[in-house]
From TrEMBL:
Signal peptide: none annotated. This is LacI family transcriptional regulator. It comes from Deinococcus cellulosilyticus (strain DSM 18568 / NBRC 106333 / KACC 11606 / 5516J-15). Pfam families: LacI, Peripla_BP_3. The keyword tRNA processing does not apply. Residues 12-68 form the HTH lacI-type domain. InterPro entries: HTH_LacI, LacI/GalR-like_sensor, Lambda_DNA-bd_dom_sf, Peripla_BP_I. GO terms for molecular function: DNA-binding transcription factor activity; transcription cis-regulatory region binding. Keywords: DNA-binding, Transcription, Transcription regulation. It comes from the Bacteria. CDD domains: HTH_LacI, PBP1_LacI_sugar_binding-like.
Amino acid sequence: MNESEKNPFKKPTSADVARLVGISQSTVSLVLNGKAEGRVSAELQQAIWEAARSLNYKPNRAAKALREGRARTLALVIPQLSNPFFAPVYQGADREARKLGYDTVLVNYDHSMSTQEALIEHLSSHDVDGYVLWDISARSTGLLSQNNVVLVESQIDGYHSIMVDIPHGVRMALQHLVGLGHTRIAHLAATVDTETFQARSRTYREFFEEQGWTYRPEWEVRAPFSLEGGKQGALALLGSSEERPTAIMCDGDFLAVGVYKAAKELGLRIPEDLSVIGIDNLELSQYIEPELTTLHIPAEQMGECAAQELIQLLEAQPTARKVVWFQTELIQRNSTAAPQQ
């Protein structure tokens, strides 16, 4: 009986693995640390890994980090932790990082420039190997090396980026509404001054021009990215115009839920009196009535990809700037319909 079997609360060690296989601990260490190539036979390596699995052996990350002179920790830096969009982002990034032997810490910031810069300066003094920075400014990234940063939803010269083709998705959403017969389409925009949100507004205006429509500034209202912001923004859209919009495209599902609240207060039915379309495809979009038509953004896959790209940067020679693109998908549910005549 080995020591782990005698005491089930004792964490298995490489010495336990060595005893089980009947070899030296140094040979086990070569295999478990990935240094066995050409030094330990394939058969013996397999036997060592099988023994490690049977004992539920987990390598000591702290010791490995000390040997390598690295913390083996990534920082996922995101805005607005209250936004449920970021839960699957973190899950994807953390799962991929753990596969590759890294931990992930989650760091929240607001979109103000001073907060971003203070946060980056603070993080750079801590034991973090690399950063996934979501929707961050060029000035803030200048405080960090290009060799340990991956950007998400922003493109800056010299940095790896993970991007979503938001303009294509917004056009799909607007074309869906036009296909239903809508021409009075409003935009509930978030008061977030970053590239991904600027792209939503820019594409909305370009689409109006492409359709030969006159842009109506009163049909584009900016609101805080929150449930209450969505409600107040919708009340402004639906109450201030002589010609009420028949459809609203929202910058996020969070805002769309607020629109539902405003519509109820105004006695408007969705989708009979007002069509609503969101962006993100949050889980809650399937749990409101009627279920929300929305653009799916692959949040979890983006988190996985960001962690992969960052770890590759950390463990390999720096490569040329790379941009990975993700596409959106229109999820048609029950919140959009033809306008009433």
